[in-house]
Amino acid sequence: MTRHDEVLVERAHDALLHAVSEATHTVRLSSPYLGVGVATTLASVAGRSDAVWHLLTDLNAAAVAHGSLSTAGLRALLGAGVSLHHFRGLHAKLYLCDDNFGLVGSANLTAAGLGSSEQANVELSLQLQPRTCREAVVVFDAWWKEAQVITEAEIEQVELAAASLPASVHVTSATTPQGTTSELQVIAGELAVEARTRRLWIKAMYHESPADEPWSLGDWFSSSGPGKPSFLPGDLVLIYPKQLGRCPAVVEVLDESRRDPQFIIDEGLPEGDAERWPWVNHVRPRLAVPGSDGVPLSELGISGKALQRGHRHLGLSEFVEALSYLARAAAG
User: Fold this and answer.
1) Other Cβ atoms within 10 Å of 93 Cβ, number
2) Domain architecture of the chain: domains with CATH
3) Among 87, 200, 222, 262, which is most exposed with the fewest C-beta within 10 angstroms?
4) Whether the Cβ atoms of residue 94 and residue 64 lie closer than 8 Å to each other
5) How far apart are CA 168 and CA 157, in angstroms?
6) What pLDDT is recorded for position 328?
7) Per-residue pLDDT at 208
8) Residue 326 pLDDT
9) CB count, 10 Å around CB of 148?
10) Measuring CA to CA, how many Å separate 147 from each of 46, 73, 152, 249, 261?
């Protein structure tokens, strides 16, 4: 294309990532929704960038509760030195780098929006010519001056507000091709509501399970020591079978951890496994999809390295984002 052409872009991820990586002066990003995986990638680029970065969003409690605006993602960007501002009612998706790259369209800063997800949305963006880029910079800067600074305190405040929303606010999901809501989608919505008052975890598992069948855990799991794991009754746990590289299930913890290697042996596991993972919790399965439909760690901005100790806490937005992915998988 010539430098004066405007180009339609169906999947914006590669064009945007290239542009922000090459920016030397200023990066301006405007998106009401933000996925933790995309935010983590952008934070990594921003941390190495010589450009000054700005992100404009709508710090909306309903969006946080739905999982469409990731507070973990906002924190990752803050930690990388990105300036964040809240502009109430923002709906524009506008991405500007220096004065020579601009992208405007329907794509939010989420994996589904930018087209980097296996469950990508159908989106369309327009890559702007330089003159229009400069005009868009003027518009963005006017919004920025009217917007309010977002700090850690504002993020904590919106998380509290999201946790107090009524149960009528459900996880974002699609419908089935027939236009009906599946049972799994209903369960995902119920879990999204419950998650606001529960402790949330992701836990790695190491035994094999068929990728083409709903993942089955049974009624207990075990954890490594030497210290007692902090699981408590009512906690919700996203299960990550390591050999799948995806999270296809959510379980609810029924009791406190107890050290019981003999129980594990009696359940038919080798003595070595019982000594390695001696802490037992009983659980009840709440949601499961085939392993191949599970949510990849990259969608949550989590690396396998972060689970070297076997489990870690999840933020509300991370957990709800996983539920949204599983709900879309259930819709086919």
Assistant:
1) 22
2) 7-162 (3.30.870.10), 183-330 (3.10.590)
3) 262
4) no
5) 21
6) 78
7) 64
8) 86
9) 12
10) 21, 19, 16, 39, 57
Q: Please, are residues 163 and 197 in contact by the beta-carbon 8 Å criterion?
A: yes
Q: What is the pLDDT of residues 282-329, one digit of tens each?
A: 999 999 888 888 999 988 888 777 787 889 999 888 888 888 888 877
Rg of the chain (C-alpha set): 21
Residue-wise pLDDT for 67-102, tens only, equals 789 898 999 999 999 999 999 999 999 999 998 999
Q: Which residue type sits at 234?
A: G
Q: Find out whether 127 and 135 touch, Cβ atoms under 8 Å.
A: no
Element holding 264 (H helix, E strand): helix 261-266
The edge-to-edge listing of strands for the beta sheet with 93-97 is 7-9, 125-127, 101-105, 93-97, 26-30, 52-57, 83-86, 148-149
Please, what is the Cα angle at 229 between 300 and 287, to 5 degrees?
45
- Beta strands at 93-97 and 279-288: parallel, antiparallel or unpaired: unpaired
Task: Please report which confidence band the pLDDT of residue 187 belongs to, taking 50, 70 and 90 as the band edges.
Answer: confident
Residues with Cβ within 8 Å of 308's Cβ and at least 6 positions away in sequence, in order, are none
Mean pLDDT check: name the lowest of 5-9, 56-60, 230-234: 5-9
* Longest CA–CA separation in the chain, Å: 72
